[in-house]
Amino acid sequence: MSQIGITKTFDIGDGRLVSIETGKLAKQADGSVVVKMGDTMLLATVVSAQEAKPGTDFLPLSVDYQEKYASAGRIPGGFLRREARLSDYEVLISRLVDRALRPLFPDDYHADTQVMISLISADKDIMPDALAALAASAAITISDIPFNGPISEVRVARIDGKFVVNPTIKELELADMDIMLAGSAKDIVMMEGEMKECSEQDMIEAIQVGHNAIKIQVQAQLDLRELTGNKPKREYNHEDNDADLKNRIREELYAQIYEVAKGGTNKDERAVAFKAVRDAFIEKETAAKGEEGLDDVTVMLIKRYYHDIEKEAMRNMILNEGVRLDGRSVTQVRPIWSEVDYLPAAHGSAVFTRGETQSLTTVTLGAKDDEQMIDGAIFFGYNKFLLHYNFPGFSTGEVRPNRGPGRREVGHGNLAMRALKQVLPVEGENPYTIRIVSDILESNGSSSMATVCAGTLALLDAGIKLKGSVSGIAMGLISDSETGKFAILSDILGDEDHLGDMDFKVTGTANGITACQMDIKIDGLSYETLTQALNQAREGRLHILGEMNKTLSAPREDYKPHAPRIIEILIPREFIGAVIGPGGKVIQEMQRETGATINIEEVGEFGKVQIFGTEKESVDRAVAKIKGITTVPEIGEVYEGVVKNIQPFGAFVEILPGKDGLLHISEIDWKRFETMDGVLEIGEKIKVKLLDIDKKTGKLKLSRKVLIPRPERPAGEKKENTNSNQPQ
């Protein structure tokens, strides 16, 4: 007998139904739901500790999205044949959900909280990532965990000029805009996507369409909470507070902090000055306590309150003075310098520096064997464009162990990859597998946007024929709801990202936007403000693009001399077996003889052959051999053949790989030979002309003498009969 759960079903707006079920699976979690659309099912659970760990002053939230291979009827690859660490794709979805949920927890809630979302059934045409945040939010909403939601997330794509919410996988292949949006019933809190050079107005329209769909899903979660009995939220006290101490810090230090913020200093000088103000206060308080000194709780409170007041003073300084922490105006972009071909041995390289942020980026060109294999529960295949982003500790002057890329690095690299992917040459015009690596050497704000700029320059330096150059900029927002003041900041610093209300990254060409990422930390961001931010971002992008163009504005005419060469040719499908040979013998021999790497794949009625080599000569030799195998002999053509076999009546000459013809003794020369002794040698190269192809047997009739000038006959000599009836 099956357990009966509580279910809320709703229409997403186009006739397709989504159900949220609870009370059936994972009932020991604080909250659990199963979201179902078509055959796709997601199980989301949330568990939060009853108490916060001592000394914790943040929300220890972890969000993990994982796709079970069984959900799609597949067995994982690899030696262990089981789900392992999260793939980059799963990490990216986890980040999308995390960024949507995190701002909605109370600021003073610090208990360890874990959200887990599992794909347990997969519909082959429904994207599960667009349902992940809905499932996670629903699990939290019906629980007793404090949460200022619910929220939800949708995908908006533009297909044939129309906006579609949560399109199918097949529909998404036709889209020129793909955006993921998250929000509450009132506000958008997160956005990320890619597009083919769209306008700012197009993006605003997509956000509006998505927000209308989100409101439906938010209401469905509230209805489900009603059906489950409106479980009361738990009471908690995760912070010690001392109002008198906070007021005293504000009264004594606010003016000093304000002056430091107003000083227009660089990152390090500003950090030292702020710390000096705080440490002086701690020393004064410690001295006032005498031998007893300050206890650990009081020191922690001083640091927390100082941080809050520092943030408040910096925000007010920018709103009141109209200048930034480093002395810039709100629209001013930091100084830029860039250089290409910095690394002579790389296939393409660039250094891009903007203010105190610097990226050293390389481009490596590879063959088909270098493609990345994608082996996911739903998506599997190959990827020929990779972008990897590295953020070592020294880039911010920190000591930090190198343990490989974290979620932040994966997310930043993915944003830059989506930005540049839109301007790559189409499939037939780019035979290479391309890998971009961005190593951040200095960081003080928007290193992902520096990666986009450096990546563009490195691709141009490598000779990749981009459709256009891409630049990127990070925008910020500081607002005061009481006074109505707000400031939109172009090219934000790291400090401005932390103290601001919005982090909005926009990339694009001179023609339009190619990618975006936005996180909003306040309620009530109007579409008018968002439009202003987008327009201001466009001005900043174009300025940065102009600076980049001073270094390199178009791709190199040719690849670097040391870059590998790739040629792709199409051959009739029936020749694929001949090129490969029995057990791969022919293709392996060609690779050994030429030094080139050869790959063949069947594409429709043709075989696509990719020849890859580090030297042009080796590629040319391989192309010649393949064309020899696949070329059909033509009557009247002249070939350079090789004598393979000698018989009394003539010689068999190979004019193309695997294609022999008879050169009759009478067709060797104008003079008459009685025997073949000493006339030709096996292995000798000679030029011959194809006279005829027997229609029944396919045998080839060759002649050498027709290529030799005919000698004049002595007077009275009979004409030689050239119509031989000798065996063929």
Structural description of this entry:
It is a single chain. The chain is of the alpha+beta class and 728 residues long. The protein has five domains: 6-228, GHMP Kinase, N-terminal domain (Ribosomal Protein S5, domain 2, 2-Layer Sandwich), CATH 3.30.230; 243-321, Arc Repressor Mutant, subunit A; 336-398 and 405-551, GHMP Kinase, N-terminal domain (Ribosomal Protein S5, domain 2, 2-Layer Sandwich), CATH 3.30.230; 565-630, 2-Layer Sandwich (Ribosomal Protein S8, Chain: A, domain 1); 637-707, OB fold (Dihydrolipoamide Acetyltransferase, E2P), CATH 2.40.50.140. Helix content is 30%, strand content 29%. The protein has 14 helices and 29 strands. The strands form six sheets. An eight-stranded antiparallel beta sheet has the order 8-7-9-10-21-20-18-19, with helices on both faces. A six-stranded mixed beta sheet has the order 1-2-3-4-6-5. Strand 16, helix 8 and strand 17 (433-442) form a beta-alpha-beta unit. Helix 1 (88-101) packs across helix 2 (129-141) and helix 2 packs parallel to helix 4 (200-227). The radius of gyration is 35 Å and the shape is elongated. Mean pLDDT is 92; it is low at 722-728.
Head-to-tail CA distance between termini: 84 Å
Question: What percent of the residues sit in helical stretches (DSSP H or I)?
Answer: 25-40%
SS-based structural class?
alpha+beta
Predict the CATH topology of the largest domain. Ribosomal Protein S5, domain 2
How many domain regions? 5
Global Rg:
35 Å
Based on Cα principal axes, name the global outline.
elongated
Given this structure, which CATH class of the largest domain is correct? Answer: Alpha Beta
Largest sheet: 8 strands, antiparallel
Which residues sit in consecutive blocks of at least 5 with pLDDT less than 50? 722-728
Q: In order across it, which strands form the biggest sheet? A: 8-7-9-10-21-20-18-19
Q: What is the percentage of strand-forming residues? A: 25-35%
**CATH architectural arrangement of the largest domain:** 2-Layer Sandwich
Fourth-level CATH superfamily of the largest domain: GHMP Kinase, N-terminal domain
The number of helices is: 14
Q: Oligomer, anyone?
A: single chain
